[in-house]
């Protein structure tokens, strides 16, 4: 599809959204006028209020004219004087592709790359160009692979894909934003109704009556209905742009293979899929694990720590599996990017007639530690930046201690509610009180004070015990681990190969021993001896 036809289609899609908006607002206005003309005042007031509530999401989405695409992506500008090698590569690739180089390069925190162009007159006039490079790509790609990724993105400039991207994205984003606004209101109504019904059920159980089943089937029905025309138009927009979007990606792949080499381009796609998965895992399991405890890794390690995960010997087998098995099939029927496996297969059918590839060294980033620290300042929120910075080892121990303390809280509160001695400052004292109570036959009296779902609260006899046993086991395990940290100097240790482990002095692991000791204590015939023995032999 030529540029003129793509421009016409993008303009038509955006115009269609505004026409749909006017039609919906007109319908709501007409309903209000009709109600005040023919219906009783009480009905007219209700219709007017409903029309206003339904019209607000539509008007708000129409008036939100923020620029779509990459314009609002937080990133760190990389000046040519600071990163001359990177700029030299980008300018050389742009020249070979036959397009104008970007005016700015921004480093981002995600495992992706992209381009944008601030065009004018609906894409007819070019504007400033920006290239976005995710720091995981600079961390995990070799230089030839980086060349392939950059050539792919610059090819979008050469194919004029970015000239009309703003208009196309504006149409899609506007309609999707409207749908999301309606769905948000629908969720609020559902949550409100569920909360009200759950409170009523809890009160009924407390009074010995049978609780009604929670049913939110009709909650948010009005918003759900109002969203349907916008949802249908969103599907139409996505289908209308789906084919051309995929064709643009495949064309950019062919350009990358011609410029950077077939093998480098295919391997870049494989490695990028690995980096996306590894980055998501790292950010959730490592970089942000200390946030509940008010902690962050050392400066520069929020994004820079990914290299530690990628270099861990124990992770290499998993990474190789991801590398050899890229994602297959469509992630979404409307995704403009074909599946990585399909893109790799098509690239590998191309002739490898490119010049000799550059040496397979690491991607270039001058003064990486300083840049990674500055990236955090550029992309993290002020609240996140204000968190305390500690080394990885201390971060792991303090974070796990905080999470374990929270996990133990329901059992410790149940102990206090049962009228037994409890000490919020000492898990060791709470554990001793719990074990004494179990030996005295009070296990299930304590368990009765644990939080329970309405279904669990209705259960009686053995069924009630089976509902409560997992919470008992989990809470007792957490209290035991806290006690080991207090009395045996046990510490949670960081591992780049698996979850954090609680180790005793000398490196002795506790997981299996704790599980084996806790399980008998919450059995049908409770036995506290194994747990008491574990505490005795572990004490320093």
TrEMBL record:
Keywords: Cell membrane, Hydrolase, Membrane, Metal-binding, Metalloprotease, Protease, Transmembrane, Transmembrane helix, Zinc. It is a multi-pass membrane protein. It is found in: Cell membrane. It comes from the Bacteria. The keyword Hydrolase applies. Pfam families: Peptidase_M48. Its cofactor is Zn(2+). Residues 82-348 form the Peptidase M48 domain. InterPro entries: HtpX_protease, Peptidase_M48. Its main location: membrane. PANTHER family: PROTEASE HTPX. This is M48 family metallopeptidase.
